[in-house]
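Bit of a strange request maybe. I'm writing a small parser for C-alpha cell strings and I need a real example to test against, not something I typed by hand. Could someone generate the C-alpha cells for this chain?
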Amino acid sequence: MAKATKQDAKVKAAERQGRRLEDAVRRAKQRLDAWRQAQKPTPVADYVLAGPDGKALRLSAAFGTKQDLVVVHNMGTGCVMCTTWADAFDGVVDHLEDRAAFLVTSPDPVPVQRAFAKARGWRFRMASAAGTTFFRDLGFEDDEGRPWPGVTTFRKGRGGRVERVASTSFGPGDGFSPVFELLPLLHGGQGDWWPRFAYGRRHGAKRPARR
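Reply from user aminoacidic:
Good idea to test on real output. This should exercise your parser:
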C-alpha cells in the first residue's frame, strides 16, 4: 500500500508540474496576443490577385462585406504540410467567416488550385498570387523566390484603404492544425510520423458543399 501511495504522489507531482507549464504557455500566449493588439496597423498596396474564376481579385474586394480579412499564404500543391493546415482550416471556415473574410492564397495558377481544392473537398475561397509580389512583400518568400507558409490579417482603414494588422509563419508543431496539438499527447509524441496527401480509403459522411 505504501508503495502504491508513493507512486500516486509521483503521478500527482508530475500532473502539477504539467499544469504549471501549461499555465506558463497560456500566459505567454496572452502577452503575445496583447502585444499584437497594441501594434498599429500599416497600409499596404491593394494587390491584384487571380480569383477562383480566374478574374482579377483586388485585395480590397476580398473583404466582401467584412471589415477584417484573414489571408493564408499556402505554398501550393507540392507541400503536404500546407495541405494539412488547409484541411484544418476547411473544417472551421464557417466559424471564421462569421467573424472575418477568409482567403487562401498560393503561387499555383488558378486551374491547378481549382483542381486540387476539388480533390481535397475544400470549401474556402482561394486566389492565385502567381506573377505578383504579394508573398514577397508580406514576408512569405525567401531570397530565392520560394514561398513560405503563414497567415496575414488585414482590416479596412479610413477611406477603405487596406491595412495589415498582424502576421505569423507556419511551421511543424505549431497550433494552426489540431493534428500537431494532439500528437504530443501520445506516447512518443509525433515520432517519425509525417503527414501524407492520402491515407487510403476515407470513411465517414462526405462534407456538404457550402452555399
